[in-house]
Design brief:
This protein has 286 residues and is of the alpha/beta class. The chain has two domains: 2-202, Rossmann fold; 210-273, rRNA adenine dimethylase, C-terminal domain (Helicase, Ruva Protein, domain 3). The chain is built from eleven helices and nine strands. The chain has helices at residues 2-7, 24-33, 51-56, 70-79, 102-111, 125-134, 148-154, 165-173, 210-224, 231-251, 264-273, and strands spanning 20-21, 41-45, 62-66, 86-89, 114-119, 139-147, 174-182, 187-188, 195-202. The strands form two sheets. A seven-stranded mixed β-sheet has the order 4-3-2-5-6-9-7, with helices on both faces. A two-stranded antiparallel sheet has the order 1-8. Helix 3 links the parallel strand 2 and strand 3. Residues 280-286 have low confidence and may be disordered.
Length: 286
């Protein structure tokens, strides 16, 4: 595959975060982790040269694969010519505002339940994962290759350095587990950082309603974006002294602890109790 890419004059584009996973053993393991069955639908974001796509296709499965680089998408089409059930989409999977591209959403609405199995482009892994989780579409399972630091945030324990907005937002929708770390040499070109494969298994039902999630997301940003401050002071600034006392009682925490001691269920309690609270800070997802 690498020699054919070079012959075609195609090089990975740094601006698109392209690092192509080429080890057949690892590609097979990623596909196996997806628990693939006959006839199901799979979303792949970041087609690249089609190496993972080949392992995902077959057995009457429908693979929707998205690639923003038109030259790379043409190469993948040629590499996979004759394989049935693959839909090649040539656009950005995101809409530029934190959601899924409407064209991709329509495709996924038509197929119903789907799995996300992807070697995600480094630059868009976090917003893409959140967009899929927040979309309301029927995600069954996600197996994604991301930067190791993103994997550490997705799977971080309460109170650790990596416990972050991404940890808590993903936890609203799914349980995340790190499956394995991949060395840089598994990719072409080798990135400067290690990567990891993460499994996200969605909860049978989300914690609560979309309206509650908006408040949940707001509290996550408000508290974890100021994680060095004491929780009591942050709650007092937001809710006043009486609200602070009420919130601390709900959380069963002392005012001097840091906000990274608030578990996902704690943020949910805040969202339910104070959902009318006006967040004056834009919600962002580092």
């Amino acid at each position: 595959m690498l020699s054919r890419l070079r012959q075609a004059g195609l090089l990975p584009r740094k601006g698109l975060g392209q690092h192509f996973l080429h080890d057949p053993a690892i590609l097979s393991q990623i596909a196996s982790a997806g628990e693939l069955t006959s006839g199901e639908a799979i979303l792949e974001v970041g087609t690249g040269p089609g190496t993972l796509t080949r392992f995902l296709s077959g057995d009457r499965r429908r693979v929707i694969t998205v690639e923003v680089d038109p030259a790379m998408l043409d190469f993948a089409r040629e590499e996979l010519a004759g394989r049935e059930g693959i839909t090649f989409l040539g656009f950005d999977a995101l809409d530029g505002r934190g959601g899924l591209n409407p064209r991709l959403r329509r495709e996924l609405e038509q197929v119903g339940p789907f799995k996300l199995v992807s070697n995600l482009p480094y630059g868009s892994a976090t917003p893409l994962l959140l967009a899929v989780l927040e979309s309301g579409l029927h995600l069954v399972l996600a197996i994604v290759t991301v930067q190791k630091e993103v994997a550490e945030r997705l799977t971080a324990k309460l109170g650790t350095r990596d416990y972050s907005p991404l940890t808590v937002l993903a936890a609203y929708w799914a349980i995340a587990d790190r499956l394995r770390v991949l060395p840089p040499g598994s990719f072409w070109p080798p990135p400067r950082v290690s990567s990891a494969v993460v499994k996200l298994r969605p909860h049978p039902k989300p914690f609560d309603s979309p309206e509650i999630y908006i408040a949940y997301r707001g509290w996550v940003h408000r508290l974890l974006s100021q994680r060095r401050k004491q929780l009591g002071g942050l709650l007092r600034d937001a809710l006043g002294p009486a609200g602070e006392a009420n919130a601390l009682s709900l959380l069963a925490l002392e005012p001097a602890v840091r906000p990274d001691r608030v578990p996902p269920r704690g943020f949910l309690r805040l969202a339910r109790e104070f959902r009318s609270f006006e967040f004056d800070t834009p919600v962002t997802f580092p």
